[in-house]
Write a structure and sequence with these properties.
The protein is of the alpha+beta class and about 250 residues long. It is built from eight helices and eleven strands.
Length: about 250
């Protein structure tokens, strides 16, 4: 069975598109717990918490966040923090999708467009997403695939529904190995020039440490990974279609 942490990672293509102010993802819970049962809801209400306490699923996936900001106290009750305490006490982890699901392909915006009868709608209105980084590294050409896989497994290279997204280019690297070094390529004490592949992959907010750890390989001594700002990434919450005459709307079947 998948764990809470594994399911949380599986939802990353959705939660990574959320607005920068939106506390999506795993709000609380034990990542190591195996998920034998789960529930979904739109809003974490008192009545919903009553039912969760009775049924005790391992994971609750909600549209709206229960906690928009860190609570000062956790005391059982009807407040958001009180409901959070009750879920934690019942062993129910909470995963939130909110604005990530609004803009994700097939999510809220697409479902509303379909309900309105729009055909082939186009996204618009980029929303500000979480701060993103770009990991850049240089590796021997025959190790490119292994390094891309390792970085991808750690969370890099996710753009929308696509995973393992990477850009690579050829170049020449030069270095001098220290006398006591044990390099993967080159001779201690001599300057070496070798062909290398430059690899670039986007890194979502909060995954930089895991990505750098995923890049560390004992057989590639001295090959480091650098992180560069990539700006903000987010989804496009609107759906429209340009009609004849310049009006903005969509095709509505007769």
């Amino acid at each position: 069975m998948p764990t809470v942490g594994e399911l949380s990672e599986a939802f990353r293509p959705i939660t990574s598109l959320a607005a920068s102010w939106d506390p999506v993802g795993l709000q609380f819970g034990d990542r190591s717990i195996e998920v034998a049962s789960l529930a979904v809801c739109h809003e974490v209400t008192d009545a919903l918490v009553d039912r969760m306490e009775a049924e005790e699923p391992d994971l609750l996936i909600a549209y709206h966040p229960l906690l928009f900001r860190p609570p000062s106290t956790l005391v059982a009750g009807s407040s958001p923090s009180g409901r959070a305490f009750r879920l934690i006490r019942a062993g129910v982890a909470l995963l939130v999708v909110h604005t990530g699901w609004d803009v994700h392909p097939g999510g809220t915006a697409d479902q509303l467009a379909a309900a309105a009868g729009l055909t082939a709608p186009s996204p618009f209105g980029l929303q500000s997403g979480p701060d993103a980084l770009k990991v850049v590294t240089f590796v021997p050409p025959d190790h490119e695939e292994a390094v891309v896989d390792a970085l991808g497994a750690a969370g890099a290279g996710v753009i929308g529904d696509y995973t393992g997204c990477a850009f690579s280019s050829d170049g020449t690297g030069s270095f001098t190995v220290p006398e006591d070094g044990d390099p993967f390529i080159g001779t201690p004490g001599e300057r070496t020039r070798v062909g290398e592949r430059r690899i670039e992959m986007v890194v979502p907010a909060g995954r930089s440490e895991a990505v750098v750890r995923g890049h560390e390989r004992d057989d590639l001594e001295g090959i480091g990974a650098g992180l560069q700002p990539e700006g903000r990434r987010g989804g496009e919450p609107g759906r429209s279609r340009q009609l004849v005459g310049g009006a903005t709307g969509g095709h509505i079947p007769a």
